[in-house]
Amino acid sequence: MRPMRNVSFAVLALLLGFPLAGQAAEMQMLPAHEQAGVASCPASADWFKPNAPEANFVLPDVNCAFHQWAVQEFLYLVQTENGLARFLNMASPHALFLYQGDGPAPYPGSSLTQFKLGAGMARLQAGNGQSNDAGRVVFLPRTLKTPNSTFDANTQAGSNAVLVDQQKQVVYYTSQINRAYYDFIRNNKYYNKIPYASMPAATAFDLGSVEVKSSWRVAVKDGVEYMNKTTRADYYTVEGDVCKDKDCKSLVPATMALVGLHVVGRVKDHPEMVWATFEHHANAPDCISTPFPSGGLSFYTPGQNCGKKPFWDGCNQIRKDDWTTPSQICRVHPDGEPATAENIANITSIKISYDKLVPSTSVWKNYSYASAVWTTPLTDPPTTLISLSDANIKGSKKASNTSMESFTQEKNCLHCHTYQPTQISGNCFPAGNKNIYLSHLVGLICDQKPQPKK
User: For residues 130 and 139, is the Cβ–Cβ distance under 8 A?
Assistant: First the structure.
């Protein structure tokens, strides 16, 4: 078991905006996979300072710059704002993509949850939503690739499988978008299918657009504790509401613990966006290290034999409708390899630097950068479709997150987030391929008819 590295940077211990971990018990850490010959790709101490600025969206075309962008943007997004991590203050895609003819309010949109509870989780017309309590996050199920689908979910994209933790609780997912993303869609009226369909194929999101997807374990639900207070102290947690049961006809209060985060950003010359992923140290072991003896991992039972590569038949198996059997997950490709030696060395370098700089009192010491993927640059603004051939995909070609791509780790984000409409909507958009389809949130445009009012 890899011990937690000691942090000697006491001057950063009172990092403004970072939640404190409290008196946390010793973490159950992932097995080590350190690389020899570490390159010089450090995190900067400036990123950990109070109110550190957002990352620059204009990058040099060198491998290290993309990893540095990913870590700096992550640190910016997890700073506290209005009592929550900054990314949770960003807009819900459901405030942007309403029913046809419903124009969204200015960023961040309506404070109402646009859902009708029950079968299908149908979204309502603007003004007919269910009001949220201030400071609470609503986590709802998702039905993929169907009318009235939502992007708050307990099923994973790609596999449509349910991830169940060792406490027999399903993992939930939610997404947020920043002002640049929101205003691009709203100002161009691309929330409506008619102008969206007429958009030129090469159109890309505006520079600085950011999309975040996060994964969450249930810590406490409806008064039942699934994580004790000592364990909860090692996680970033929020108060929210989740479905009472699989039918989701009502919501119950819950404390949710963050286990994974995708940070996706539109940088100059990269309409495909940079896709970076972070996860909690105690999610799952590397497959090659199983059977792994230690407990305390969210998605792995101690001693589970995951088998042998490349199949790892004892782990990462899809259970689409099983909400109660704990999933057995292992990490197939640490650092998202296979990739270049430079890429792996840079990831290792920035991880080591991060571990040294993050305050020992910060809950974010328990989260690690995993990897990122992007492509060769295009002229900006682009005049062609994104090139997604294997030769053009850069960074970690098998970048994945054990809490988000648990069952599809042989792919990376750009295998699914492409310019092809069939990835998000079937035949909903007959106008052909478009760069903008890389964000699956735009599939919400496919909803055409409002559901009856509650």
Answer: no
- Residue whose entry in the numeric block shows the structure tokens 């409409």: 421
Least confident among 118-127, 143-152, 200-209, 215-224:
143-152
Please, how many CA atoms are within 13 Å of residue 397, restricted to the half-sphere of its CB?
13
Total domains in the fold of the chain:
1
Q: How confident is the model at residue 432 (pLDDT cuts 50, 70, 90)?
A: confident
Q: Name the residue among 338, 282, 281, 292 with its Cα closest to residue 315.
A: 292
Note whether 113 and 152 are within 8 A (CB). no
The token duo for 392 is 């053009």
Per residue in 171-185, pLDDT (tens digit) is 988 888 999 999 999
Residues 6+ apart with CB under 8 A from 148: 120, 121, 122, 123, 447, 451
- The two tokens of residue 50 are 């109070």
407 within domain boundaries: yes
Question: What is the amino acid identity at position 154?
Answer: N
Q: Are 3 and 281 in contact (CB under 8 A)?
A: no
- First-to-last C-alpha distance (Å) of the chain: 52
Half-sphere exposure of 124 (CA within 13 A, CB side): 17
**Strands 210-221 vs 251-267: parallel, antiparallel or unpaired:** antiparallel
453 located within any domain:
no
Q: What's the domain range around 405?
A: 10-446
20-34: pLDDT as tens digits:
333 232 223 333 333
Residues 386/391/394/400 CA torsion (nearest 10 deg): 90
| Residue 113 reports pLDDT greater than 70 | no
CA 77-127-156 angle, 5° bins: 45
Can you tell me whether residue 365 is helix, strand or coil? helix
Whether 152 is in a domain gets the answer yes
In 3D, which of 366, 367, 361 has the Cα closest to residue 23?
Answer: 361
Domain-embedded: residue 454:
no
By C-alpha distance, which of 76, 87, 191 is closest to 137? 87
Backbone angles phi, psi at 210, to 5 degrees: -135, 140
3 state DSSP class of 100: coil
Please tell me the distance from the alpha carbon of residue 225 to that of residue 218, in angstroms, as a whole number: 9
